[in-house]
Amino acid sequence: MSTLSIGFTCSKHFQGYPCSHRQWKHSGHCRFVHGYSRSFTFWFAAKSLDQYGFVVDFSGLKNLEIKLKHHFDHTFLVNFDDPLLNQWKKLHEEGALDLRIMENVGMEASAELVWQWANLILLEQDKSRTCCWRTEARENEFNAATYEKLPDWYEKNEVSHC
Fold first, then answer.
1. What is the pTM of this model?
2. Which tens digit of pLDDT belongs to each residue from 76-109?
């Protein structure tokens, strides 16, 4: 039997991103505009530690933090196919809301989106030594969604166990 070895791991949590959204296709109350203060947790992996003994130097995650803040801090998230999109765009142009158009505003899709962002940043700065293998997008203390996947470019070592 073989299992996948991802190496050393660590995690980093970011919080305090108040934003609103709506799930326009939902038949219940989620179709109405509502908001949460979102938070995100990232799990990182590395086959080897860096020169300081870190999986990921958290001070090198400033670009990720900036991207999270830009996308989720006091913004209104809307699906690209929302039938009210033109009205949301007009309100954005008038300065009533800070619009972000997404494929899917749900927490599951948000977890995948921030996983992609983290891996783009890590690939550029660490040249595939590190990766983000799991993310959690949390809308409050009770509800969260996760996305878990090793990026294709992360060196996968198969370890055989007897």
1. 0.91
2. 999 999 999 999 999 999 999 999 999 999 999 9
User: CATH top-level class for 7-157?
Assistant: alpha beta
Residue with tokens 């660590």: 10
Domain ranges of the chain: 7-157
25 contacts 47 by C-beta, under 8 angstroms: no
Q: Are strands 99-102 and 144-148 parallel, antiparallel or unpaired?
A: unpaired
Chain segment 28-57, per-residue pLDDT in tens: 999 999 999 999 999 999 989 999 999 999
